[in-house]
Design brief:
9-stranded mixed β-sheet, alpha+beta, globular, single chain, L-amino peptidase D-ALA esterase/amidase, about 30% helix, Ubiquitin-like (UB roll)
């Protein structure tokens, strides 16, 4: 059977970060922006002495801070306390973020809340700031109490190790089942946006490989900028960026108890300048750069899903509404049958069509078109002959594209996921033991 070359691919586009007008900083991360130092140390939360397990990120001066947190009702103690420190509105002023890996401090009751408060106190004593200016995050096994003696010795160690070049160590210290750290940083000029002579930077780190289908945040992410942005504007920008990045990834359709994403703004690149104003070219460029960083980190998380061998980009167009586009894309991205087919290098469009059909999105099957890796496999609801040999060749790509046009409207969206391999079951079968 021959591949039908006379049928045009859908070419829906989108899915890759947009770096237009930005400079990508090679090796950049959470300390690329001016005014921040970080460290990652082995404190003792993990048995392996060679594994970093405590990260500390500190602003030189009190910084604007915004955050998004998990919507999981079974949220962890650090989420509860960090929300309190941001006055329940998820933005304010902060000086530091501390993250431990190995123990989630979730489902730990009042003792866990006390431990989270004590963690903030220990960090505040080292940094020299109020405990309410300390953000906290934990990741690891649920239901285990934190050993506070490890914080007592580990935080001073991490504080002593703080460096403007410490972002890479911090990114490694927050990892759990991740196979690699996720970091990114970009910069942009202020010349054309009312801040001549200034160069603004946004950089960040993220972790997450399993229990990933964020709802309002990612597993754990810390982003910094030296741009002058007020806390409320910072929160609006972060919420917008999270909605189209971290909230558009899924590894296994599970929303964590510990999801949190923090954004700090030092203003150090323009210390005496007026903060970016709503609707201004400066804020628009800042939002563009923030989206690029969040998209990069989110894609990195999906690509590093537990046991993953391929990043999968799912693009859905032609939906009646944005919500229905999301429903269809999410159903496809979460489908174990789709994910295992990709792992098996099987261009099984029937599984994609079936997932879209049960998603709740409204469309007529006679109007649907599907491409896999740029190969038309379905048009007007009917199969298109394609070469299995060509499909196998394209499956060697590190990123697999699935494009679906529902033919029901103009709404569209993009989601990122990964395949399911045997290793996913192995990792999660003995995660706690």
């Amino acid at each position: 059977m021959q591949y039908e070359t006379d049928i045009e691919p859908l070419n829906l586009g989108g899915g890759s970060p947009d770096y237009s007008g930005l400079s990508v900083i090679e090796g950049g991360g959470a300390t690329s922006a001016s005014g921040f130092r970080a460290s990652g140390v082995h404190a003792g939360f993990r048995k392996d002495p060679g594994r970093l397990d405590l990260a500390l990120l500190v602003a030189d001066e009190p910084a604007a801070c915004a955050a998004t947190f998990t919507q999981n009702v079974f949220c962890a103690a650090p989420v509860t306390v960090s929300r309190e420190h941001l006055d329940g509105v998820s933005y304010g002023t902060a000086r530091a973020l501390v993250v431990n890996s190995g123990t989630a401090n979730a489902a730990t009751g009042s003792v866990g809340i006390q431990s989270a408060h004590r963690t903030a106190e220990i960090v505040s004593e080292a940094v020299g700031c109020p405990a309410t200016e300390v953000m906290i995050a934990s990741t690891g096994v649920i239901g285990q109490q934190l050993d506070m003696s490890i914080f007592e010795t580990g935080v001073p160690q991490a504080f002593a190790a703080l460096s403007e070049n410490g972002g890479a160590d911090a990114a490694r210290a927050i990892m759990t089942t991740d196979t690699r750290p996720k970091e990114c940083a970009v910069s942009f000029s202020g010349d054309a946006i009312g801040y001549p002579g200034c160069i603004f930077t946004i950089g960040g780190m993220a972790k997450g490989a399993g229990m990933i289908m964020p709802n309002m945040a990612t597993m754990i992410s810390a982003i910094t900028t030296d741009a002058p942005v007020a806390p409320d504007m910072l929160h609006a920008a972060l919420t917008d960026a999270v909605a189209t990045s971290f909230n558009k990834i899924t590894v296994d359709s599970d929303t964590s108890t510990n999801d949190c994403c923090f954004l700090f703004a030092s203003g150090a690149a323009a210390p005496d300048a007026v903060p970016f104003e709503a609707g201004s070219p400066a804020l628009e460029q800042f939002q563009h750069a923030l989206h690029a960083v969040c998209d990069t980190l989110a894609r990195g998380m999906a690509a590093d899903g537990e046991g993953a061998t391929r990043l999968i980009t799912v693009r859905v167009a032609g939906a009646a509404t944005d919500a229905q586009a999301d429903m269809a894309a999410r159903a496809i991205a979460n489908s174990p049958l789709v994910k295992t087919a990709i792992f098996g290098h099987d261009a099984n469009w029937g599984r994609i069509a079936g997932a879209a059909g049960r998603s709740g999105a409204q469309f007529c099957q006679e109007d649907v078109s599907i491409d896999i890796m740029g190969m038309p496999v379905l048009r007007a609801g009917l199969p298109v002959p394609f070469s299995e040999e060509e499909a196998l060749r394209r499956f060697e790509r590190p990123e697999i594209d699935i494009d679906v046009d529902l033919g029901a409207g103009t709404a569209r969206t993009v989601m990122w996921t990964c395949d399911f391999s045997h290793e996913y079951v192995t990792i999660n079968g003995d995660y706690r033991t």
